[in-house]
Amino acid sequence: MVPFLVVLxxxxxxxxxxxxxxxxxxxxxxxxxxxxxGLNIAWESTYALHGLAGAGGAQPVINLVWALADLVIVYTxxxxxxxxxxxLTGPLFAGWGVLxxxxxxxxxxxxxxxxxxxxxxxxxxxxxxxxxxxxxxxMLVARRGTRGQSMLIAVPKWIGxxxxxxxxxxxxxxxxxxGIGILCSVFDLAYIGLLRNAxxxxxxxxxxxxxxxxxxxxxxxxxxxxxxxxE
Length: 231
Fold this sequence. Notes:
mainly alpha
């Protein structure tokens, strides 16, 4: 069961990342909150390289695929993201982004130094997933709409976290992971509900708009000098 959950998580997050790329390019924005993006690419690249250099297995390969997808999302951030922060100059925006990504790598390495590779991978992953779940809600509110967001991000993101919650929290008997994973699901389901409501609200004005009045044809006018026929 655990291998199945690992593969399910890998597929779900891969779908979410691919949709982040598609939606980001379509809407000319970035589709993942910046802090979450920084922590994700730091985690995935760090543990992909460590795993591939060691025992290998499915998870390091999945991590590598995720890291490569994250690189494209990082591109969308630096390419389109400044529009979300109109008060920042170009150099300030770029410097702020670099600082976030550098800090994200520092956080991952501090976790490894404190907890070791095995525990750091689990603890940091679930804590940053909890942060991400809250940040997606904040992004929806800040943008006042669904720009750069879709259900094909929201639902796979939830499944991608739920699967390892069951694998580690239940099958490996980790109360900490189970508790954080449940909190992730609470925020993820709240985000799905809020996003669905926002999408319905965005569609409502178009559906409620009155149909355009039909133009009156010229030949429907009575000719000059003619009398209207009585009924």
